[in-house]
Amino acid sequence: MANKVAIIASNGGLFDAYKVFNIATAAVAIDAEVAIFFTFEGLHLIHKQAYQQLPMPAGKEYFAEGFKAANVPSIPDLVKMAQEMGVKIIACQMTMDVMNLKKEDFIDGIDVGGAVTFLDFAKDANITLTF
């Protein structure tokens, strides 16, 4: 069995993005094959405009200083890093249809597919996570 990590990203906030891309890049760094399936609000994490200004949870603004002090990369930088490391990014076709979004609305280099596309990857994954 291959060393695979399957991630579902269904939430679209700043903290969600950090969780998804931190786990994905860490998994690739330990030689796992990684795919992330972005659905519903999770699509914001790869949307060309939205991912550049993801909302900080209310009352958590103090994290901005901590991110800066710790030199934590921005979400666009983390996404680029994940792609360069080989993380497979799959946007949910059904959700895109419901939200009237096109592939061109998203960052370059993504795949578009349905649940079956993700399940084909995830069926023999060692780890499956949902954020």
Keywords, separated by commas or semicolons:
131 residues; alpha/beta; Hypothetical Protein Ychn, Chain: A; 5-stranded parallel β-sheet; 5 strands
Fold topology:
Elements: E1 4-9, H1 14-29, E2 33-38, H2 62-69, H3 75-85, E3 88-92, H4 93-98, E4 111-113, H5 115-122, E5 127-130
Parallel strand pairs: 1-2, 1-5, 2-3, 3-4
Helix pairs in contact: 1-3
Strand order of the largest sheet: 4-3-2-1-5
CATH architecture: 3-Layer(aba) Sandwich
Helix content: 25-40%
Strand content: 15-25%
Shape: globular
Number of domains: 1
Q: Structural class, from helix and strand content? A: alpha/beta
Give a verbal description of the structure.
By secondary structure, this protein is an alpha/beta fold. It has one domain: DsrEFH-like (Hypothetical Protein Ychn, Chain: A, 3-Layer(aba) Sandwich), CATH 3.40.1260. Helices cover 37% and strands 18% of the residues. It contains five helices and five strands; from the N terminus they run βαβααβαβαβ. A five-stranded parallel β-sheet has the order 4-3-2-1-5, with helices on both faces. Helix 4 links the parallel strand 3 and strand 4. Helix 1 runs parallel beside helix 3. It is globular, with a radius of gyration of 14 Å. The mean pLDDT is 96.
